[in-house]
Amino acid sequence: MKNALLRGLSLACALTLAGGAAASAASADKACGAGVWRTADGRAVSLWGTTSGKLRWRTMDGRSALITGTGAETRATRGWTGEPDPTPLALGDCAQGLTSFDGQPVERVELEIIETRFQGAGEALAGRLILPPGDGPAPILVEVHGSGDYSALDFNAMQHLDPAAGVGLFVYDKRGTGASTGTYTQDFAVLAADAAAAVREARRLAGNRAGRVGLRGLSQGGWVAPLAAAQAPVDFIIVGYGLAVSPLEENRAQTVLGVAEAGFDAEAQRKAGLLADAAGEVIASGFRSGFAELNALKRQWRREPWFPHAKGEFTGEIARYPEAALRLAGPKRDKGTPWRHDPLPPLRALDVPVLWILAGADRDAPPEATRALLSALQVEGEAITLAEFPDTDHGMAEFVQAPDGTRTNIRQAEGYYAMMSDFALGRSLEQGRYGRAAIAFPRAAP
Predict the structure, then answer these.
(1) How many CA within 13 A on the CB side of residue 6?
(2) Where is the signal peptide (predicted)?
(3) H helices of 321-433, where?
(4) How far is CA 241 from CA 97, 287, 389, 399, 436, in A?
(5) Which residues neighbour 272 within 8 Å (Cβ) at sequence distance 6 or greater?
(6) Which strands, in side-by-side order, build the sheet including 168-172?
(7) Are strands 236-240 and 210-218 parallel, antiparallel or unpaired?
């Protein structure tokens, strides 16, 4: 869950010692040829734009490929690998979009799309409701996005696949992004108030088409969704690759994991955890205190071979710069993150079913502590279904790993999308139905 503060901290500190530009892209939902189609055998295929201006196809089984060319010259590369994808497909002009997929003819799926502007917590937010075909009630997911500072309306790629599976989706640009007003923030309380307003707006727009309405919090959204549910009642919650520990604990786990994956022993990992704790005290104080301990650990360990691998969410950046630079540049990059946020009280306060899905090999959000905490909540009687897809990284992405440890995503896990849509539709989840996922169900009431 990369934090915006740290995305700009290196540049800010470098400028301080010496004396990010935001990328723009055309709206992906309006990209030439974008849409959703159904093959003759019933599979949904979405075409959605990317920041590069190219289209990417996605299917409900988690496969994806980046498209180049049109007509007989249409080609695609598998996942994010750059390698040729074997699935044949053909594109027509912008109006036609997809004309065949995997050797089958396709038919466009016509969705009901409603654009809106609504009032969040003091800001005007741009939103969009996408409903499945037909005029009957449908469940609706209100998307609570991760920490990215880009437009969800433009780049949330589930706006086709969820409705094609029978689940409505409400997406909106967070404050300070896309077409919404305000300043970008990572203040969970503010984001939760905006998400609660989004729930109310989704219900209003859907009218008598609103069935079960739930929140889906992905990554950072896993902290925000339970807070929002306390302000706007929902029927269920889905969390994907989110954590039930604080942002400080997330950074600690990331830091220790990086040292462990580099091959260092338990003692080096222990030291990395202490370094992460010291860096956490500095960042949680708003760069006002904690420097004595941090500086002492840096002097003691900075020449040890594990030290460069202690990166985490922010440990490496904090340890990299001198105190004077951090005191000056750090507060300027603060986005309001509540570093000591305790997710457990909001979770215990929920009275609706929760589906929590973990990525088993997640480097951004290591799942071990969250798995243990959620299992304990199940024992306490909380209505939490805990699922985990093994060998997946953040975003539930399957990957190939190079000898140097770098990963390249090839697809989303098979069964991930289907599990979320089935839960939203109120269907019973079954072990073995969703690819390699392991599911731990809530304990039956005595």
Answers:
(1) 20
(2) 1-23
(3) 323-329, 344-348, 368-379, 416-424
(4) 32, 29, 10, 15, 16
(5) 255, 256, 258, 259, 264, 306, 309, 310, 315
(6) 112-119, 124-131, 168-172, 138-144, 210-218, 236-240, 354-359, 384-389, 438-440
(7) parallel
Asked if residue 186 and residue 317 are part of one domain, the reply reads no
> For residues 228 and 197, is the Cβ–Cβ distance under 8 A?
no
For the segment 178-196, what is each residue's pLDDT rounded down to a tens digit?
Answer: 999 999 999 999 999 999 9
**Residue 416 within any structural domain of the chain:** yes
Residue 207, in any domain of the structure = yes
Same domain (yes/no): 10, 37: no
- Relative orientation angle of helices 266-284 and 247-261, to the nearest 10 degrees: 150
Handedness of CA 115, 119, 125, 131 (dihedral sign): negative
Considering the entire predicted model, what is its pTM?
0.93
Token readout for 352 is: 């609706």
Claim to verify: residue 218 and residue 365 sit in the same structural domain? yes
Q: Is residue 107 part of a domain?
A: no
Same domain, 216 and 346: yes
Residues 71-94 have a mean pLDDT of 92
Report the pLDDT value the prediction gives residue 16, as an integer from 0 to 100.
40
Show the tokens assigned to 311: 């990166």
Q: What is the CATH number of the domain that holds 413?
A: 3.40.50.1820
- Structural domain for 60, as ranges: 31-102
Hunting for tokens 């990209």 — which residue is that? Answer: 31
Pick from 223, 218, 232: nearest CA to 339: 223
Q: Give the single-character DSSP code of 299.
A: H
Instruction: Looking at the structure, tell me whether residues 79 and 141 fall in a common domain.
Output: no
For 377-392, letters b (16+ CB in 10 Å) and e give bbeeebbbbbbbbeeb
Q: Please say whether the beta carbons of 160 and 187 come within 8 A.
A: no
pLDDT in tens, 118-159: 999 999 999 999 999 999 999 999 999 999 999 999 999 999
